[in-house]
Design brief:
The protein is α/β, with parallel strands linked by helices. The protein has eight helices and 28 strands. Helix 7 packs parallel to helix 8.
């Protein structure tokens, strides 16, 4: 009997010593709300403990139930101490119920409320939107939803049949208008009565013949007496409508010319193409002519040493190209641009040739055109440079003959052209294709 008691005491002592080696930190029964992360409190070990800690669990924090977290001290292959924490996953959180639309909803007189619905998401059961119960009476709508654990949520939407909203203006706070132009139309809409733009009044009349800034106040009142005002800053800008821009493109056509034509059509702008004799682009040239652009001669060969060798050689090149263009368009063009311009020095190998040609070409009924504004696109510049280079030269001249290129490799010119056209249109510049009576922008002849 005494031996049995002694054995029991020894076992109890050994168990007590083992439990001292590993102790649970925090509660022995941990309550976790389903869907929330489990933050492990950990355990404490005796100082100098050499055995390794191992942890195992069947915990699923998304599903309510009772789970266990086992902590083991392992020395080699032997478990020398262990303890357990109980984890209770509970679901006490109701679904998140959210109204679609406003909690206080106004319905226009004579109209019926159109149900907007609600959404319900539960941490455990997921999307419960389809289980929402909706009940209503004349003044309110009640939304109720419950999850599988019995947690529920309810919301109420108040319904008011009334018109208390003022009309709304749809217009920018600042607008620019060219001198002598018309102010842009202003739009005002009402939630219940629709478009009320025709009822808008102003506090004064803006005189757009006067350049400068003016402030205009718009007012409107709907049939229920709901009123609204809107103040707009009007910039009346000087118009350049007296200035005409003649866009000219040299050295084409190329694979880019169709894109240039598309952009010009988008802005409803006519231009002039001084083309070289090239094969494979007949349809592009015909399209340009058909869409109202001018087709001018630049060169049949574009070989300076051949073109400027003599007066006879020059006109042989010119007439060959003129005949080629007529064959494509049905018209005999009398527009010409000298390769290098009339002020070129590449012809200096034949002294006096340009003085002779600039006189004789006009005697033959052909007008040559130079330019008084270069885009700078002959160099390897990006679109931003070309745009800025052109815009800083635009002013109040009556005519601008602009030199550009639509030949291969001038993608930057195409990109810059959009910004140039946008700016010039906004400033009121006019655009036109050249004809024999247009401003020729002749250079000073240097040879």
């Amino acid at each position: 009997m005494r031996k049995t008691i002694l054995f029991i005491l020894m076992i109890t002592l050994l168990t007590s010593c083992a439990s001292q080696r590993i102790r649970i930190a925090g509660p022995s029964v941990f309550v976790l709300e389903a869907g929330q992360p489990y933050l492990e409190p950990g355990v404490t070990l005796l100082p100098g403990e050499t055995a390794k800690l191992a942890v195992s669990s069947d915990l699923n924090p998304q599903k309510p139930g009772t789970y266990r977290m086992r902590y083991l001290l392992v020395d080699g292959k032997e478990v020398v101490a262990q303890t357990t924490r109980k984890i209770k996953v509970v679901d006490t959180t109701p679904p998140a119920l959210v109204l679609i639309g406003k909690a206080v909803t106004d319905v226009c007189p004579g109209q019926t409320y159109q149900e907007q619905g609600a959404t319900a998401i539960d941490l455990v059961d997921g999307d419960l939107t389809s289980t929402i119960e909706i009940t209503s009476d004349d003044v309110k709508i009640t939304y109720h939803v419950a999850d599988l654990a019995g947690n529920s949520a309810s919301l109420i939407r108040e319904i008011h049949v009334r018109d208390i909203d003022a009309p709304v203006f749809d217009a920018p706070g600042e607008v620019s208008v060219l001198e002598g132009g018309q102010l842009p139309n202003i739009v005002a809409t009402d939630r219940c009565e629709g478009d009320l733009s025709a009822l808008v009044t102003t506090d004064k009349i803006i005189d757009t013949s006067v350049v400068g800034d003016q402030i205009l106040t718009y007012s409107i009142v709907d049939s229920k007496g709901n009123a609204a005002t809107f103040t707009q800053l009007i910039h009346v800008k000087k118009s350049h409508s007296a200035s005409t821009i003649f866009l000219t493109f040299d050295d084409g056509p190329s694979y880019l010319t169709d894109d240039f034509l598309d952009l010009l059509a988008e802005f409803d702008v006519k231009a002039t193409f001084f083309i070289n004799k090239k094969s494979g682009y007949d349809k592009v040239i015909q399209r340009a002519h058909r869409e109202g652009h001018s087709i001018g001669m630049h060169s049949y060969s574009h070989v300076y040493s051949r073109i400027y060798a003599s007066e006879e050689a020059f006109f042989q090149d010119l007439y060959a190209e003129q005949a080629w263009i007529k064959n494509l368009t049905g018209e005999t063009t009398r527009l010409y641009r000298f390769p290098g311009g009339s002020s070129n020095t590449v012809s200096s190998f034949n002294p006096g040739i340009m003085t002779l040609l600039t006189r004789s070409i006009r005697e033959k009924g052909i007008q040559y055109f130079d330019w008084n504004l270069s885009s700078g696109d002959a160099g390897k510049h990006d679109a931003a440079f070309i745009t800025n280079y052109v815009l800083k030269q635009l002013g109040s001249r009556s005519n601008y003959v602009v030199l550009m290129h639509d030949s291969g490799g001038h993608e930057s010119t195409l990109e810059a052209l959009r910004d140039i056209l946008s700016y010039a249109k906004q400033e009121g510049y006019s655009f036109s294709a050249l004809n024999v009576n247009s401003h020729p922008a002749h250079h000073g002849v240097k040879n």
